């Protein structure tokens, strides 16, 4: 029994603890970013109408939406690039300020329909915005630029993130007076486009709406773990 115990104790000291090397590491993170000219836009707009009767409010809204859809079709926007986001019909309530006991009454209705439109040809974007406003679109919720094929750009951003993390690790090792070893692990946090956003306060109906696409930024972030050599 004593001999077996001695062998176990001897083996414990001969085999280095697993955590000895694991604690000799450098952990860094890197960020890569690539700028690109957008080639696609997403428009969020809608039609809102108010009337005394619910049917009249919905009919006026529906008529304007049909006109907008026909205009989009004529502009070359494919059906798959147009989606109805929301349809709503709500009463307008009038509450008496003088008599709290008087119940509120309905004085009319508001009908709303929202559309989300993908424009793949940015050269017609300003014209499309102008025309749909003339056809009855009277609410505008935003314009978002993006790229249709971000994969290659994200891959480039990812490569830049790895380079950044490796450079940081080298700087840390040099500052600490140690030798940087092999990569132990790499993990990615994100790598998605971050499109710029535009808000339009008021549409000009006399001519095409001026639109500046600018650039979109695609980014990737990684974390890397390196061993420290003696």
Short description:
The protein is of the alpha+beta class. It has helices spanning 2-14, 19-22, 54-74, 125-134, 151-176; strands at 25-36, 40-51, 82-94, 105-119, 139-146, 179-190, 193-194, 197-198, 216-229. Mean pLDDT is 83; it is low at 4-20 and 195-207.
What does this structure look like?
By secondary structure, the protein is of the alpha+beta class. Helix content is 32%, strand content 39%. It has five helices and nine strands, in the order ααββαββαβαββββ. The protein has helices at 2-14, 19-22, 54-74, 125-134, 151-176, and strands at 25-36, 40-51, 82-94, 105-119, 139-146, 179-190, 193-194, 197-198, 216-229. The chain has a five-stranded antiparallel sheet with strand order 3-4-2-5-8. Strands 1, 6, 7 and 9 form a four-stranded antiparallel sheet that branches. The longest helix is centred in the C-terminal third of the chain and has 26 residues, at 151-176. The protein is elongated and about 85 Å long. The two termini are 39 Å apart. The relative contact order is 0.24. Mean pLDDT is 83; it is low at 4-20 and 195-207.
Mean pLDDT: 83
User: N- to C-terminal separation?
Assistant: 39 Å
Rg over CA atoms = 31 Å
Shape: elongated
Note the run of SSEs as H and E.
HHEEHEEHEHEEEE
Counted by DSSP, the helix tally is 5
Number of strands: 9
Strand order of the largest sheet: 3-4-2-5-8
Backbone structural class: alpha+beta
**Major sheet description:** 5 strands, antiparallel
Helix fraction by DSSP (H/I, runs of at least 4): 25-40%
Strand content: 35-45%
Low-confidence stretches: 4-20, 195-207
């Amino acid at each position: 029994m004593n001999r077996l115990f001695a062998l176990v104790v001897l083996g414990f000291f001969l085999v280095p603890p697993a955590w000895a090397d694991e604690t000799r590491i450098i952990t860094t993170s890197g960020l890569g970013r690539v700028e690109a000219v957008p080639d696609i836009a997403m428009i969020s707009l809608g039609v809102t109408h108010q009337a005394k009767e619910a049917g009249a409010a919905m009919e006026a809204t529906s008529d304007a939406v049909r006109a907008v859809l026909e205009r989009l079709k004529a502009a070359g926007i494919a059906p798959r690039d147009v989606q109805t986001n929301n349809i709503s019909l709500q009463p307008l309530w009038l509450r008496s300020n003088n008599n709290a006991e008087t119940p509120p009454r309905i004085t009319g209705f508001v009908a709303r329909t929202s559309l989300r439109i993908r424009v793949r040809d940015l050269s017609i974007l300003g014209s499309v915005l102008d025309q749909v406003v003339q056809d009855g679109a009277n609410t505008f919720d935003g314009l978002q630029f993006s790229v249709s094929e971000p994969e290659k750009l994200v891959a480039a951003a990812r490569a830049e993130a790895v380079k950044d993390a490796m450079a940081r690790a080298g700087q840390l090792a040099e500052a600490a007076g140690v030798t940087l070893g092999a990569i132990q692990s790499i993990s990615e946090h994100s790598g998605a486009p971050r499109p710029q956003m535009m808000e339009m306060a008021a549409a000009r109906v006399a001519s095409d709406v001026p639109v500046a696409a600018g650039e979109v930024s695609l980014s990737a972030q990684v974390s890397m773990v390196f061993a420290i050599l003696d």
